[in-house]
Amino acid sequence: xxxxxxxxxxxxxxxxxxxxxxxxxxxxxxxxxxxxxxxxxxxxxxxxxxxxxxxxxxxxxxxxxxxxxxxxxxxxxxxxxxxxxxxxxxxxxxxxxxxxxxxxxxxxxxxxxxxxxxxxxxxxxxxxxxxxxxxxxxxxxxxxxxxxxxxxxxxxxxxxxxxxxxxxxxxxxxxxxxxxxxxxxxxxxxxxxxxxxxxxxxxxxxxxxxxxxxxxxxxxxxxxxxxxxxxxxxxxxxxxxxxxxxxxxxxxxxxxxxxxxxxx
Length: 264
Description:
Blueprint: E1 9-13, H1 18-29, E2 33-38, H2 41-52, E3 60-64, H3 70-84, E4 89-92, H4 107-132, E5 139-145, H5 156-176, E6 182-188, H6 194-201, H7 210-221, H8 231-242, E7 253-256
Parallel strand pairs: 1-2, 1-4, 2-3, 4-5, 5-6, 6-7
């Protein structure tokens, strides 16, 4: 089955690792032109060099960019348009979470979480909107967290910010439908990442391997599928929502949490 994105142009923020990198690979496999950004130029170049061994480098573009800086975002988007001519899809995939309860969360933590989860999207939408309006398959897809519906006290600021992004996504979907731009989101649960790998390396019980240790984490979190998600599983959902295969879907959310969500 084709996702109908061959020769189309997609921007992916936070594309040098994890879910973002897996999505870059998926789009390249489907023949799309892919531009991805991150703050670490060396890491970006490393992913570009690695992927160039398997994919056409002419269909790839990297750019160092802080998505919280509108000037940098504008420069990134302008460079993408100069390279590929158009923009058809935007996938917003930025940010880690702040682990702290209410009493350990200071004023700056609140500001930082809201800026990262909300303004990273606002800035990218502002910059890409004039170009998305020209596309016949335009879409914006946001990577969000189950925390937006299922808040955790030990991640209070992140939970609040994630709920705000969920609301923003719905509002954008309602407002941009007149421009024929679809807006959707995924809600991820616990997905394998560098953060989880670091926790694994710092584990107290050294007798357990990665699979056993993560299965224990999943059991404690009561994840019905009994394991953490894999980055490519979230990427598959993103690919569907961003592509024309979901052409009659906007304002929607796909839950990618292994059954962790109990909401109806």
